[in-house]
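Because discrete structure vocabularies remain unfamiliar, we turn briefly to a single example record, giving the amino acid sequence and backbone structure tokens:
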Amino acid sequence: MTQHTNSRLVIHVSEAVEDVSRAIATAGALRDSFPGIRIRIVVNGPALTAVPAIDTAEISTDVDVSVCAIGLQRRDIAQAEIPEGVEVVPAASVVIVEEQLNGAMYLRL
């Protein structure tokens, strides 16, 4: 199987709450299908309400999860409620654009 060590993917989740767990499962399946791919899940919008319940043990290694600080603030979700290992970033849109400018593929759920 081909190693994809230079390949990157951003999975963007912003609407449905259930899409957060779907993104985590999708990331795991994609890592299995494309060994070495670097995956970053970026969550903003209404989907952020699912983030405090994320079980980080279900997240594959080499998969990063980032959440938007602006969206957390708008939804009155305290950063202290965010599970350890989930990165709070200033703005989801900036992270997504940075990733794409650096060659990442984009998948929206």
Remarks:
- The longest strand covers residues 8-13.
- The two ends are 26 Å apart (CA to CA).
- The CA atoms of residues 49 and 77 lie 8 Å apart.
